[in-house]
Amino acid sequence: xxxxxFGVLLVNLGTPEAPTPQAVKKxxxxxxxxxxxxxxxxxLWWPILNLVILPLRSTxxxxxxxxxxxxxxxxxxxxxxxxQQALAERLPGxxxxxxxxxxxxxxxxxxxxxxxxxxxxxxVLPLYPQYSCSTSxxxxxxxxxxxxxxxxxxxxxxxxxxxxxxxxxxxxxxxIERSFTQHGxxxxxxxxxxxxxxxxxxxxxxxxxxxxxxAQALTEALQLPAGKIMLTFQSRFGRxxxxxxxxxxxxxxxxxxxxxxxxxxxxxxxxxxxETLEEIKEENxxxxxxxxxxxxxxxxxxxxxxxxxxxxxxxxxxxx
Length: 320
Description:
15% strand, 8 strands
């Protein structure tokens, strides 16, 4: 009887290798070429992407990356590596590899490392708490592309999402309560999730529901008064309607409603990144304060907090 050898593949979105226009252009080209992310017909999308979006956005976005870049690299990569290393320490004898859907390390090398170590059962954990076709499904596609040319395949357990997992909700609750203790209780707690086009939901993506599932579970765990917690969606791209309410427009209107102090957390991000550290912590703070807000506190992602590693450990070992 063949002995089962477990291995874990953590997967996050990806990041440029450097905060330079060239590196950002290379990363965005790969990211925005994935039909899971942008499903515009290729003949129409290719000239828009290569002749308009990449030349215009690469320099601007590189400056934003530079503003949040850490000594060891991109925040998303730094925290994802820490998560990988911390989880590996919890699972002695079980190889844990990190892959990115876009950029480096891609899918191929980490999967091949696992298989080279004799892994016969691979647990794939996309680091997206709420499933979306544009994130979790893209991970599935990437794993399939690597394995489709191999004669011998490992058994696979693909963790679709963990939007209401008790350890996830508990970790978020603890993080929020620590912030309340440190900074005082705000007028509103804002839960800002990454947006997707409304059309994706109409076509069957249950991402919006999964975000609301998380918000409901967290609201119940925190036991805050009704109306104290708000759910919004950030990071829209392009001209078509995305999930609402939009984070930036919501924050712009809150001070006029007497909401002068907010704390904001981004539960859909397993690691801090450009969208949390620049878009929320900096850009949306400025929007809120300029509109008449008085206090703004960003509650960081779970990153490599011990409670987050507890969650990751529970998610993968349930399949061992």
